[in-house]
Amino acid sequence: MNFPLAVAQAVRDALGPKLIAGFRITPFEAEPDGYTLEDAKLLCNELAALDLDYISVSLDDYRNSRPMRETRIYSGPVEQANTPAESPITEFARVIAGRCALMASGGIKTCLDAEGAIKMGADLVAVGRAVVVDPEWLSKVRSKREASILAGLPKDAREIGSALSIPPRMVEYLLSRPGWIPRL
Using CA atoms, how far apart are residues 99 and 14, in angstroms rounded to an integer? Predict the structure, then answer.
């Protein structure tokens, strides 16, 4: 844990107290003998003491209490040994104990999803894939038009680039991760 702590401290020192500094952490890995939730909690306890503004917990889905298998990378089954009894968000909120903000990400597609993460202990939420699917996500939420939020990318790969105004290489990357971005 020396390296991430040294980097976080150097960033905090370089930015000074007037600029926001945070640290993003993935709380566990799907590989056998990979980084565990307990490892992540120990690191977050130390990070929270560094006067960071937030710690961002990046999950596949904030509701899941274990890593999801990503077939593009992982070849073996997901280990169940890392499955906590409660939400990792709740566990991190307890460890951080208000020393900095806790940001949750993963699977947040609606206001209800965001509220769910906040009820588990998050102070902030990050929305990623939902905004990739529908770049107008925030304006639709703000104007109470959540029902019009797009639920997935077009089935035809050629339509994705024009629907999202993204280059072909980004379309290729999105499609290289089956199931990561929903399709219509």
Answer: 20
CA 76 from chain center: how many Å?
23
Q: DSSP secondary-structure letter at 183?
A: B
Banded pLDDT at 71 (limits 50, 70, 90): very low
pTM of the full predicted structure?
0.82
- Tell me the CATH architecture of domain 2-127: Alpha-Beta Barrel (3.20)
Contacts of 149 (CB under 8 A, 6+ apart): 109, 110, 130, 134, 137, 140, 141
Domain boundaries, the chain: 2-127, 133-184
Q: In this structure, what DSSP letter does residue 69 have? A: P
* Nearest one of 115, 103, 91 to 42, comparing CA atoms: 91
